[in-house]
Fold this sequence. Notes:
Elements: H1 23-27, H2 41-55, H3 57-75, H4 99-130, H5 139-155, H6 161-168, H7 177-189, H8 192-202, H9 205-208, E1 218-224, H10 231-234, E2 241-243, E3 260-264, E4 271-284, E5 289-303, E6 332-340, H11 355-358, H12 363-370, E7 379-385, H13 389-399, H14 416-420
Helix pairs in contact: 4-5, 6-7
Amino acid sequence: MLALRRVPRLTPSLASIRGNATLEAALHPQADVPPPPPTSSVRAKSSAAEGMQAENGFSGAVANASSSAGQQQKSGGGRQPPPQAPREWCRPIAKGVEPAYDYALRYILKDAKLLRKELEDLRAAIKAEEKKPEGERDEAALQGMRVRVDILEIQSEVNLPDVRWKARNGMADMSKPIYRHLIEQQWREEGALDLLMERIYQMHVVPDLLPELHPSFDLRIKFAEPPPASNYLRTRVKRKLKEVEPGIFLVPEQTRRPPEISTTLFHTNTRLYTLLMIDLDVPDPENRSFTTYLHWLQPNIPLSAFTPVPTVPLDTHTPYVPPHPQRGTPYHRYVLLMLPQTSATEPVDIPVFEEADRFGFDFRNFAEQYGFDGTRGGGAHMWREVWDETVSHIYQYTLKKEEPRYGKLPRPDPYADLKRAKKYL
Length: 425
């Protein structure tokens, strides 16, 4: 059994002893032990502040408890408050704390000032050159100065801390070249584009769908969150939209409604794009192979750096049909393309695809007919799905046709005749 012993009242003197002192040294201090060093003014001020807090401790605790309880009651049982909007950039350390940081910041500001001066001089030279008659202008030099202006507009601000902070925290002004440059650099060099192209080539979207694909802007999609495991909660919980990572598996219930599409483009002029959504793995029983199915088509979508989401309705042409991977088939690859049209300003006339024309959709012939080319840029996304019970509801209530079933052919039994024969005479 363990015995509990009360500590003597002299133990508070341990607080005044520094180092690895023992109880015996505290009870019997020696004369040759030097006294502890005097406390600093900061310690004295903090002790005074602690004393004032101790005097008003009870009332302050009651007030804090009541306020925190009220906040929990207002927020719905202690829920976290919604995230705040990103703040403006401010110095991480005060001036004079780190001389190296102060020197680096002064150097960056001085360099930016010199580049802005060079930019102003170059713009003045361009205006003077443009005022000359057409026969006296040096068009080659004028074009070179314009290219240099575009470079200086970025170089004069690319190292400023507040500019990089805004570009990183969603406060970028896409009307300025510097922010378009930083956002595109982030998309191309920090993994988002690499992950997309990795999944597209790993899943053989290239060359199964098109021979080449060079995305030029960031295309993102959002579907509803996966349904809860409980059947009771499925009809009582409102699922939020969740951004989809390229190449992951989704369940058919998530994709029953069209996705929420958002884009980040890097050109300021408005150009027309065509949206396509294609299933690459639809079984073709007649040819004992696989073919494609057109799920969605919407041409003539105007997009620019100032349109984070499409500004036109996306269901006015070939409407969206939810993915319905057939029972007994492997996973299906669903590809979403946003391709630039041949003319950036003139709409293209594409007929609406009926249900019979969706099956066996030949994208290569379609691209050749209307001038679509994956090497001229655009956006892309993809995901995968497999069959589950939701597909049966899609066939019954959305497609309104009988659900097919596929599977491997049974192997011939070499002993079938022997099994049908009588074993005993």
